[in-house]
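Collaborator request, handled under Task 6.
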Amino acid sequence: MKKYIWINVVIGVLLIISIVFHKKYVLDYDFTKTKKIYSKEDKIEKIEYESIDIYIPDINFNKLIPLRTKIEKTENTSKKIRIIYNEIVDNTQDLPQAFINKNVILKNIFIKKGVLYLNFNKKLVENIKNEKQELLVIYSLVNSFTGVEGIEKVKILIENEEQEKLKFYNITNYFEKDLTI
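Structure tokens returned to the collaborator:
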């Protein structure tokens, strides 16, 4: 008889637990929190691209050549400048001599009245080996960035300060696009 009492008690406890579980987890379940399953009719946001020209040195470092590349389309000019800078760096890593290495950091940018201010770390200066390379670096940046709508001139700063020279060339003035270099 005691055996049947314990079986009834266990069954009663299990029944109470299942009723509580059912009420708490099944009846009160918020079905709006479930993951959405996308159907073919749902629109998936597509990334748009645009073609731009960046200017990089030829293999002999004699002149700059335009390289057409696709970048993510953005209305944010600062983001576009950073994307273009990364394209210049990435597309010059395989050159036989150093151009702009990955240790050169574009710390920040500022645009005012059509002038793009580029603030680099000191590694930009340390990376330059000769006059020709410096000229190509300057105009690679200038010619590439003046292709962005609203940018007419470029000013280069090092560590938030205006410099008289990088190593060889005077950089106190604003630079404008020059496709003869």
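The cover message to the collaborator said: "DSSP finds four helices and seven strands in the chain. The longest strand covers residues 49-57. Please let us know whether this matches your experimental observations."
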